[in-house]
Amino acid sequence: MTSRERILTALEHREPDRIPFDLGSTGVTGIHIIAYRRLRNYLGLGPSVEALYDTIQQLALVEEDMIARLAIDARPVTRRRPPACIIEGTECFSFCDEWQVWWQMPKDQGWYFDIMSNPLHDANSMEDIEKFSWPDFNEPERFEGLAEELKEIVEEKKAVVVAQDICPGFTETAARLLGLEKFLTGLILEPNLVCAVMDKIIEIKKQYWQYMLKEGRGYIDIVQQAEDLGTQYSLLISPELYRKFIKPRQKELYEFIKGLAPVKILFHSCGAIKELIPDLIEVGIDILNPIQVSALGMEDTATLKREFGEEISFWGGGIDTQFVLPYGKPQEIRDEVRRRIDDLAPGGGFVFATVHNIQPEVPPHNIMIMWETLCDYGRY
Description:
- By secondary structure, this protein is of the alpha/beta class.
- The protein has helices at residues 3-11, 33-43, 64-70, 126-130, 146-156, 170-178, 180-189, 191-215, 239-260, 277-283, 301-308, 324-327, 330-344, 364-377; strands spanning 52-54, 59-60, 74-77, 87-88, 92-96, 102-106, 114-117, 160-163, 222-226, 264-268, 287-289, 313-315, 350-351.
- It has one domain (3-83, 122-377): TIM Barrel (Alpha-Beta Barrel), CATH 3.20.20.210.
């Protein structure tokens, strides 16, 4: 099977020749640039061009020689944005993104960029929301070369395309603009203001996807969406608030996207979200990413497969990235990979990926033990 056939077969809840494998097709199934350098050196692949897929998370853009070496089945299409203009200071690097959010990363042992300011933190009225300098993602230059890039991935490399959004979910982006505290308390105290911000973000997303899916029709198989709804032990907001303010907007956006092209929605949320999985199915997600197996209620992957595996596919959950992958002994890594395959692979509906991005401290030999176990144990 080609990579594209393999993934599409799995997403149709049928068993392909082997379990598909993803590393780097999304901003939540990637690898930190430091871990990537070490892995390339370990595999003898030589120096990297060190292009970044995601500046904030410092994720590597996985190169073709690594894709070939690890038989990776999915490819990303990035958010089609200009590179960040990084400012180098005495102690840190910083930049301002297209949403006017400032980010900063320490020079000394800095692994990621963190938010330093929220441009709508002091917004108190609808007028403040309207006069904000909202970004425009529809400039034609953003899409130059897109059709050729997609054609190469699908027709020549025979891989599946995962198309990225212009930003994280509308809730996370609203929290970046307003500040997390203002966003969360605002759902109760100022819902009209918070909803106005979310609706503006959704409007911008719709404009982007209208252009992107027109240009990429016939080549884009999967559209990634995200709303981080869980913490390690609970939901981030109550089910009642989610169903009142978030769920209807998800349904609106996902129906709009699917009305533009026959794509599948790959939805990402970390955390303890089992309670909301039926709601996510209702709003139209086709694929759930990941399964954070270290979060409360998410560790029993066999039960998740039994309860939801006929309605959605699972992309991720192949190995815990908080404890097992970075710190586990070889046999612990092998046992974890085998357990998740046993639970999630039968009948298809499973793409193997780590629970989240591979972090800088993960030893390359641990990554390869994971991968070799998948190769040995992941055939149907």
